[in-house]
Amino acid sequence: MRNILPVFFLLLTSFGAAAQSGVFSGRVLDRQSGMPLPFATIRVADPPSGSLADSTGAFTLFLPAGWEEATAEVTLVGYARKQVVLKRGIEAIVNLEPLESDIEAVVITGTMKEMRKSDSPVPVEVYSPKFFLRNPTPSLFDAVQMVNGVRPQLQCNVCNTGDIHINGMEGPYTMVLIDGMPIVSGLSTVYGLSGIPNSVVQRMEVVKGPAASLYGSEAMGGLINVITKDPSEKPELHLDLNGTSYGEYNADAAGSLALGKAQTLLSANYFHFTKRWDINDDHFTDVTLQKRFSVFNKWHFDRKDNRIASVAFRYLWEDRHGGEMNWTPRWRGTDSIYGESILTNRYEVIGNYQLPIEKEKVLFSFSYNRHKQDSYYGDVPYLADQRIGFGQLTWERHAGERHDLLFGTGVRYSYYDDNTPVTAQASGLENAPQCSWLPGTFVQDEWTFNKRWKLLSGLRWDYDGRHGHILSPRLNLKYNPDDVNTLRLSAGSGFRVVNVFSEDHAALTGGREVVFAEALAPERTWNFNLNYTRFQHAAFGFINIDATAFYTHFFNKIVADYDTDPEKIIYQNLNGYAENMGFSLNSDWNFINGLKAVMGFTLMDVRIVEGDRREWQVHTPRFTGNWSLSCPVARRRLTIDYNGHLTSPMRLPVFPNDYRPAESPWYSIHNIQITWKPGFRTPAAMEIYAGVKNLFNFYPREDVILRAHDPFDKRADDPADNPNGYSFDPSYNYAPVQGLRGFAGIRMTFR
């Protein structure tokens, strides 16, 4: 009854005004799809009048005689409110902007099959490039800081290398994919997300929890899948140029083009930062100097029956270095002036080809990457070459009305060579590159009991020549008690074979000696997740709530022991177990006036248990929180974005009798941005943006580099200079040493 009364009132208003001569009409359309939007509400305040759009999106208003134009407000649940000027006798076209709900987004990462996010038995989070543009960054590595429960962690205060933590699990447990292919792993985990232009990203899918039954090794803690744009979309040229008051400059360019039955997407990214900063007065660069160039080229080919055929290429070159303020490349590899210099060349190719089999979807996917690194950490060289080839065949099969089966088989080839003891023969006189094959096969059954219950079960078998047969099962149960609420239960097992030198930067930098206490066995885990989502329409827009409780139990976890001997990093399998548990909550609020708010937090308990010893994991905060507020000012063509994150204390690697705190303080980073869209006619759609990062100028005030005045430990044995027996160490890191800075940029899209 409450819903009928407004409609009845609007109808009476229309009938009462029908005899008048002021007739105003129009159509309401979805701005993105161009489809008509039925039952939108159109209201005019002066003179008072209203109408409802019919099933074709058409509407008619009757105003008193003498009115030639009127300002109307158009509203519809799920769309941003819009004001439009109606003119008598001219049909108005009203394009409404959909609110940023991803509930109906198509996802692929959780099951390797395209389906709506709301139908997936695996919880998948979806983030659009528009979300990350609220805080512009030069790489996706920095951008994921905005995702609740995902945190980029810097491992070194000199070269600023790092990894990505998901729900407190370190970077090696996170698999990063591009278009579903695992091309970022091992050595390249540190650098792989750099150089991917935001302009080529269609969306980013994040799975927090077990995924090894589909993706194998390294998918123990979660996945980040970067889905790039489809070249077959309408051609356009996109440019994004920005810079900061710190002297950081970033340029993105991307364009698409149709060439007969082929469409191509070509993009390039260049990042330049060479200005030296030392705001904490330790005579070391606070931020690593970088020059980075990458190019990405993707091809899509039209085939019969819309079968898939695509291939993409990517190249990344980077020169990064940090160290003492007076370091120059002439001191590279010497023990006179300390610097850490890393030259990287990386090549990638990925592709998908659907076999021409009638009424069957059989897909062959492949990837290959080569990562070459020429680096020096002080006078310690690290020269590495990693090559990974991957091929996989999947077959989707429907078994009756309730079972969707997926069969797959694949093989991964890994080649790794460096100048460290990892690839040296027992004699130490010759090099012996590591070469390994990892074949595997898997099966998955998605069983739909009814519209409320769905069960996904999967099992993967892999064979490693060093460790034998490895089974990775998983189970996902989805329950919809109604159309608003969803419960998902996930459980699974995973494994990982570790290459310490290629994944733990602490093994390469500083003055500590690396010690392997034993032959390292592969790590194993069991993961459990309970996820609850609620999508609720409201009069003001909609609310999306996503809550997850998670638990991971580790067997054979490999730990880096910094505490037993301050001169060493000791690696060994844990004689006990480790556990990671916690709770995360995301909330997404969208209002019809255009206001958007995304807020979330993650609570974590990450511990190592060995006998009676329970120890908190290094560099893992107990609490992290994120927020992003976006407020449009339509009359001024402005959008104001305010975002940031809050981080609780975390345990830090300290020396015996260290004068620095063993835990970091609470801290938060705040960013604000204003974006303006010009109202005058321009050759391209344009956005001009500016703002401030780290609004309250937070950065660590402690000595983040120990004994920065003696980086080669030449006076470490001098009791007068070093009475506590410290060694040079740059691993005391919990936040970037980068203060308040302004930024500005421009985006242009030519269609």
Task: Explain what the structure shows.
The radius of gyration is 28 Å and the shape is globular. It has 2 domains: 4-96, Carboxypeptidase-like, regulatory domain (Immunoglobulin-like, Sandwich), CATH 2.60.40; 106-152 and 164-750, Maltoporin, Chain A (Beta Barrel), CATH 2.40.170.20. A hairpin with a 7-residue loop joins strand 8 and strand 9. The chain is mainly β. The protein is built from 5 helices and 42 strands. The longest helix is centred in the first third of the chain and has 14 residues, at 4-17.
Short description:
The chain has 2 domains: 4-96, Sandwich (Immunoglobulin-like); 106-152 and 164-750, TonB-dependent receptor, beta-barrel domain (Maltoporin, Chain A), CATH 2.40.170.20.
Strand content is over 45%
Instruction: Please tell me what the overall shape is.
Output: globular
User: Which residues sit in consecutive blocks of at least 5 with pLDDT less than 50?
Assistant: 1-20, 505-510
Give average pLDDT, whole number.
84
Cα separation of the termini: 48 Å
Sheet with most strands: 22 strands, antiparallel, barrel
CATH superfamily of the largest domain: TonB-dependent receptor, beta-barrel domain
Judged by helices, strands and strand pairing, the structural class is mainly beta
Number of strands: 42
Compute the gyration radius: what is it?
Answer: 28 Å
Helix content: under 10%
Counting DSSP H or I runs of 4 or more residues, the number of helices is: 5
